[in-house]
Amino acid sequence: MTDSRFSPSRASRAGALWLLLLLALVLVLAVCSLNVGASRLNLLNVLTADPDDRVSKILFASRLPRTLALILAGAALAVAGAILQMMARNRLVDTSTTGPMAAAALGMLVLAIALPDGLPLWARFLLVSGFAAGGILLFLGVLQRIPLRSALIVPLVGLIIAGVVHAGSGLIAHHFDLSQSLRAWNSGDFSAVLRGRYELLWVAAGLTLAAMLLADRFTVIGMGRDFAVNIGVNYGLLMAIGVALVAMIVGSVVVTAGVIPFIGLVAPNVVRVLTGDNLRRAVPMIALLGAAILLAADLLGRLLIHPYEVPSSNLLSIAGCVVFLAVLLHGRKQWS
Amino acid sequence: MVLTLWRQPAVRVLLLAIAAVLCLLGFMTINVQTDWAFILQHRGSRLLALLLAASAIGLSTVLFQTITHSRLLTPALMGFDVLFVLVNTLVLLIFGGAELAGWPNSLRVGLQMLLMVGLALLLFRLLFSGSVRSLHLMILLGMLAGMLFRELSELGARVLDPSEFGISSGVRQASFSRVNTELLAVSAVALTLGGLLLLRWRRYLDVLSLGRDIAVNLGVAHGRVVLGIMAVVAIMVSVATVLVGPTLFFGLLIANLAYWITGTQRHRWTLPASVLAGIICLVGGQVLLEQLLASTLPLALVIELAGGLLFIALLLRGVRQ
Asked: Where are the bilayer-spanning segments (chain B) (predicted)?
């Protein structure tokens, strides 16, 4: 059987092509993102103007940080989604549909109640990440305790856990008169990102890189505990690393921008359709596609009711629901 | 003797009715400090709205569960409540807020309900035409459809009015204490209309719950009757959403209470029992929270929490079996 369609070299060539296309897409969207905003800019002026000029001020204080934040957060969330899918051994889950994001929003709420004076950024980040880790462990723990006879039970359980955490936060927020703030955290957007308010996302970038390096180990995790232990992988340690990576990515994004849904579901599934299941080869593409999706959503949100903005989470939810519904309906025979 | 009496569904429904009447009396009389004319008007209109909402949600849920043969699926869970909110936003988007302000309420709500019935029938045909067989897939599809409708109507609201979005966003959460009493008359008429339509098909309901094949065998025009009942469900969901906003688990709670209390499948008992259970939960719950406990906790949150727990319990029981 020497079918050339499945030869490794051909697959890697196709992968390289997709990688280049996605990179180009991210670059184009990033340039658009630098150009769109309440005030008009001509990017070429930056090259000639002096650094104190209005143009370069807007660019370096607002547009560039925002664009960078979008790229970093989108890539990180997409990779976090892919890792969570390996840990849960199910493709239909994301950090926003299983508990971690909702738990991180609960963490923001608890912080606002317990320490209204505020904490240094790193402390907030660590505490919110802790809540996110709790959300992941809750989800994985519940999965271990119920019989998983259908692939659909996993996303269903995830949605219910997220719903319960969400409802609980709503109850607490109502009691402390913080419903408005909770709603703001739950509908994440990048309109408040300025220089000095997004740098936490460089941590997420580091975590994304770490996740990329460990990608093939997580592929092994995705094949189940017995298989992983059998071929000599330290299953417990890797699961702990996975939980920590995903939790800190979620924590950094929620602290910076709020809940950003569905990227971790859409990006890995689209890349899987394009190039198949090899996570080591797919993970750079997943990251790029995640960045492209978030850039596009934010851009559309800025253009739709210009000069007002629609939060990117709103648009991402719509797109994510449509993709999720399409995936479910497409595969409905295999799940019945 | 007492035991056999207790087994009769009629007796159980009667007891439920007595409890409901006690709740109504409590709602109207506890902590009255000003003159009765004011109380009658103020609490009376709220009470009427709660009664209409309980009837609409109870009836629509039991009917929906009959035509879908499931005790887990409800109109709210499949996203129909939020669909009405989306229709509301769509009508505003198409006709414009200023234009609509000149219309009488009855015309506006009537138009929305017509649109709602059309869209609900479409969605129902799409989901329940037999291509989706797994219950879990159905619940997932319903939850996602609900999420999609909610986000779409939020987007619509932002496009309509970017600056005042914050003010209008509060309207789209269920509330049993701030009910919409302006639309009482329209709602009552629509609910009566739905009830009259239902009377036409009342003899088929018990047959329908036996399943499609048996129903067809017994001479029921299954497809037509099911779509007709779904239209009634859509009207009632609209009424409930107009009055108290979209709920998620309230219908599930009262329908399953009704099955449990009556211990029968006969619709002549389960339908009134679900309405009575709804009245007890809404009115009795309101009395308990507002007057007796003096709590500021919204009843909607408490009821949705209880209904949500019931949903998880029912789902887990299904998974383990």
From this structure: 47-64, 76-97, 109-128, 135-153, 183-202, 214-237, 243-262, 269-289, 295-316
- Cβ of B143 within 8 Å of Cβ of A174? The answer is no
Chain B positions contacting chain A at CB under 8 Å are 131-134, 136-137, 139-141, 143-145, 147-148, 151-152, 154-155, 158-159, 162-163, 166, 169, 297-298, 301, 304-305, 308, 311-312, 315-316, 319-320
Residues written for chain A: 336
Tokens at A203, concatenated:
């941590």
Q: What is the pLDDT of residues A219-271, one digit of tens each?
A: 888 888 888 888 888 889 999 999 999 999 999 999 999 999 999 999 999 99
Phi and psi at residue A146, to the nearest 5°: -120, 150
- Which residue in A has a C-alpha nearest to residue B305's C-alpha? A167
**Contact across the interface for B136 and A153, Cβ inside 8 Å:** yes
Q: Give the model confidence (pLDDT) of B108-149 as tens digits.
A: 888 889 999 999 999 888 888 777 778 888 899 999 999 999
- Show Cβ contacts of residue A85 under 8 Å, excluding neighbours closer than 6 positions: A91, A93, A94, A222, A264, A268
Give the span between the Cα atoms of A99 and A103, in whole angstroms.
6
- Tell which residue, A33, A95, A315, A76, has the closest CA to residue A202: A76
A144 touches chain B (CB under 8 A): no
* pLDDT score for B173: 63
Interchain contact, B320 vs A324, CB within 8 Å: no
Q: Residue A64 CB: number of other CB atoms within 10 A? A: 18
Q: How far apart are CA A56 and CA A73, in angstroms?
A: 24
Give residue B167's pLDDT.
Answer: 42
Residue in A149, A152, A317 closest to B151 by CB = A317
The CATH number given to B8-320 is: 1.10.3470.10
Which positions in chain B touch A153 (Cβ < 8 Å)? Answer: 136, 319
Q: What is the pLDDT of residue A208?
A: 94
Predicted confidence (pLDDT) per residue in B221-240, tens digit: 888 889 999 999 999 999 99
Residues of chain B contacting A156 with CB distance shorter than 8 Å = 136, 139-140, 143, 315
Contacts of A314 in chain B (CB under 8 A): 151, 154-155, 158
Nearest Cα residue in chain B from A301: B155
Residue-by-residue DSSP string for A2-28: --GGG-HHHHHHHHHHHHHHHHHHHHH
State whether the Cα torsion A174-A175-A181-A185 is positive or negative. Answer: negative
3-state secondary structure of A137: helix
Interface pTM (ipTM) of the complex? 0.89
Closest CA to B204 of B186, B184, B224, B180: B224
Q: What is the pLDDT of residue A9?
A: 64
State CA A86 to chain mean position distance. Answer: 15
What is the distance between the alpha carbons of residues A151 and A178, in angstroms, rounded to a whole number? Answer: 37
| Bond prior to A307 in cis (omega within 30° of 0) | yes
Min Cα separation B54/chain A (Å): 22
A256 Cβ contact list (under 8 Å, min separation 6): A69, A73, A193, A197, A198, A200, A201
Whether domain A9-335 has CATH 1.10.3470.10: the reply is: yes
